[in-house]
Design a protein that fits this description.
Blueprint: H1 23-35, H2 40-63, H3 72-77, H4 79-85, H5 88-106, H6 113-133, H7 161-175, H8 178-187, H9 192-199, E1 210-219, H10 226-247, E2 261-269, E3 274-276, H11 279-289, E4 295-305, H12 322-329, E5 336-343, E6 348-355, E7 358-359, E8 384-389, H13 396-409, H14 412-422, E9 428-433, H15 441-454, E10 462-466, E11 468-471, E12 477-484, E13 487-494
Antiparallel strand pairs: 1-4, 1-5, 2-3, 2-4, 5-6, 6-7, 8-9, 8-10, 11-12, 12-13
Length: 495
């Protein structure tokens, strides 16, 4: 390997300079290169952050929607992202960078300069291919392994990857000529974004992702302010009208062909009070009768494209979401509001309640009380993950017992999915699967067995648990499993 010292030399990632959107990732890539000769571990970690930033940028473009937290590995497994990239070698390079970065973070291996250069080479490849996919360049220079020493280089750890990815995409769409963009996307079989953009007169918007949304709001008296009433009418009237238009086949643009399921119940309090779950009567009641009611209760259940206002890239205007309206109303109104929301595109969900002028801190009340509660419609999860990492060659019996325990508690289908992941990532006992027993006590029983198996080598293990369970109907509830000082533990609470 040839090494050059402090000379005039182009940097490998200079081709990213000035490219629409990718200028944000240039700084990270450039820093990874500067760290390679003096701090190879930090270089690999920075390269991983750079690749994750590129992947999230691609995800936003491929789905044509903003995103919340989503793991690197889940993005690379996303079928829409894979179709967008349409190159197995690029996907593999992303995975290599991710895994190398994980090893660097966990300190499993001491990265060498050669290994850091190998990761840099793959980062150069995925960055160049990304720029080509987006039509920003037609080709990029070959990677030059002759790297200078940069003793002044500093490692920067704290980065908001999601925010940077959004900034990258916004810069890309704002500066890109619409006709050129259209041509490039069609050439790469990516036309959803442009179809959406062209359907909106005001400019570029993010297409809403799929959401499940259950809400209950109750006023036991008239709202004190007309603005509160109007906000409630506008929101639930909007949901009801969207559902009605869907039934009539009158949704167009980005919503055309999107499936929407909606049910709602309105109870009007007072002398002429009533309860209805008929959609037409619900809409009439919300729009016509609500102003005259002595109080009311609305139960709303929506499934379909997100009803929240989404970001308008050209104007940078953002309308308040209803939860924000609730917070504002709570400053001068007395009411209760409960919500369960599941973002299907990201596998994220939450339950919340607003009462007595503030949001309930549900997780502060988590306990094992809910484990034995039986709910008519059970618990739901989009996917949960459990990882136990240790020296597998040193403790093969423990690895075998852990996997036997997984087989004992999971369905055959879910077990086979886990087995497939064990080949590449043996630490993942359970990898983003649905674990849906009758009660959550079964899940804790599973965790207790896992805890017992790893107890002899607990000090040698690196463990994590990700994922939540939800009860989606009244009473809303949520639970999550975590790694604690006492081992794996499942806790939750009702709203």
């Amino acid at each position: 390997m040839q090494i050059f010292y402090q000379g005039e030399q182009r940097m490998n990632f200079d081709f990213l300079k000035g490219l629409r959107g990718l200028g944000y990732v240039y700084e990270n890539c450039n820093n990874a290169e500067k760290l390679a000769m003096t701090m190879p571990v930090q270089s690999v970690f920075t390269a991983r952050k750079s690749a994750e930033l590129l992947a999230k940028f691609i995800y936003i473009a491929a789905h044509n929607e903003n995103m919340k937290s989503m793991s690197f590995v889940d993005i690379l497994s996303d079928p829409v992202v894979c179709d967008f990239i349409n190159n197995r070698n690029v996907i593999n390079a992303f995975h290599y960078i991710r895994k190398s970065g994980n090893r660097a973070v966990h300190g499993d291996e001491e990265e060498t300069v050669e290994e850091a250069l190998g990761v840099l080479s793959d980062l150069h490849y995925v960055a160049g291919e990304t720029a080509c996919i987006f039509g920003l360049i037609k080709k990029y220079p070959s990677f030059d392994s002759k790297i200078n020493f940069y003793p002044e280089a500093k490692f920067v750890e704290d980065q908001d990857i999601e925010e940077k990815a959004q900034q990258m995409f916004l810069e890309y769409v704002e500066k890109y000529n619409a006709q050129v963009e259209r041509d490039n996307y069609y050439q790469n079989n990516i036309d959803n974004l442009l179809e959406e953009f062209n359907s909106i007169d005001s400019g570029y918007e993010f297409v809403p992702g799929e959401v499940e949304l259950n809400e209950i709001i109750e006023f036991k008296h008239k709202p004190a302010h007309e603005s509160s009433l109007k906000a409630i009418q506008a929101y639930f009237g909007f949901l009801g009208m969207r559902a009605l238009k869907s039934m009539r086949g009158e949704l167009y643009g980005v919503l055309e062909g999107r499936k929407i399921n909606y049910s709602a119940e309105l109870t009007i309090y007072g002398k002429n009070g009533y309860t209805t779950d008929n959609l037409l009567n619900f809409l009439y009641g919300v729009l016509k009768d609500l102003p005259f009611a002595d109080g009311f209760k609305i139960k709303s259940s929506y499934s379909g494209p997100s009803a929240a206002p989404w970001f308008k890239a050209n104007s940078k205007e953002r309308r308040a979401e209803f939860c924000d309206e609730v917070t504002e109303m709570g400053e001068y109104e007395n009411f209760t509001y409960s919500i369960y929301e599941l973002l299907l595109s990201h596998g994220e969900g939450y339950c919340r309640k607003f009462e007595n002028g503030e949001w309930d801190d549900l997780k502060s009340r988590y306990s094992q009380y809910v484990l034995d509660k039986e709910y008519p419609n059970g618990w739901y999860t989009l996917g949960v993950t459990l990882a136990v990492e240790f020296g597998y060659e040193k403790h093969p019996d423990i690895q075998r017992k852990l996997r036997e325990c997984v087989k004992k508690y999971l369905s055959d289908e879910e077990y086979e999915l886990c087995k497939t992941d064990w080949q590449d990532e043996p630490e993942l006992l359970i990898s983003d699967i649905q674990f849906l027993p009758d009660t959550l006590r079964t899940v804790q029983n599973f965790l207790d067995e896992i805890n017992s198996i790893i107890e002899p080598i607990k000090s040698e293990c690196s463990c994590r648990a990700d994922g939540e369970w939800f009860h989606c109907e009244e009473p809303f509830a949520s639970a999550e499993w975590n790694w604690t000082d006492d081992g794996f533990k499942l806790t939750g609470a009702e709203v």
